[in-house]
Amino acid sequence: QKALAMISSAPATEENKERMRMAIACAYRPCMVPRLKDANKAAMLSTFLPGTGQLYAGYIAEGLTSASLQIAALSFVAYSIYTKHYITAFTIGTGVFQMFYFGGVKRLDYLVQKKNHRLVRDYNDRLRELILKIHGELYPAP
Questions:
Q1: Fewer CB within a 10 Å sphere, N or C end of the chain?
Q2: Tally of CA atoms within 13 A in the half-sphere of 141 that contains its CB
Q3: Measured between alpha carbons, how far is 29 from 19 in angstroms, rounded to an integer?
Q4: Does this model's pTM top 0.85?
Q5: Nearest C-alpha neighbor of 132 from the set 16, 18, 20
Q6: Per-residue confidence of the chain (142 residues) as pLDDT tens digits?
Q7: Nearest partner of 109 among 56, 64, 61, judged by Cα
Q8: How many Cβ atoms are within 10 Å of 96's Cβ, its own excluded?
Q9: Exposed, middle or buried: residue 128 (CB in 10 Å: 0-12, 13-18, 19+)?
């Protein structure tokens, strides 16, 4: 609204003002506004299928690493049980699995906030550049 007010009060031709109003309207279209990630959805995804919450949050390498380490821990449990090392399977294998499983779910809150901050920051930076460009066209430096 302030950008539109700035355009309306500027000493410019109506054609230029309309072009600038269209640029502002285009920047605020719903398809241009970033879609923020939901921390609860990411946690639910990662709870049922480890690593998918990180993928949803946009951290592909971290999601694949988390899933791989959890699969490796479960494989160690299976191998230890197969070789009849039950205590090792229970203590080391499930311990490592639980650390990566619960750690990945807890870390998702941070990752989603980080992703959302970056999305909002990038959007606001583009808007700032647009408004400064419009201001520069309306009020050129002497």
A1: C
A2: 3
A3: 16
A4: no
A5: 20
A6: 777 787 777 777 777 778 888 888 888 888 888 999 999 999 999 999 999 999 999 999 999 999 999 999 999 999 999 999 989 888 998 888 888 889 888 999 999 999 999 999 999 998 889 888 888 887 777 6
A7: 56
A8: 17
A9: exposed
Q: Could you tell me if 57 and 42 are in contact, meaning their C-beta atoms sit under 8 angstroms apart? A: yes
Structure tokens belonging to residue 138 = 């309306």
Could you give phi then psi for residue 65, rounded to 5 degrees? -65, -45
Joined tokens for residue 55: 């993928």
How far is the C-alpha of 52 from the C-alpha of 127, rounded, in Å? 32
Residues in the chain: 142
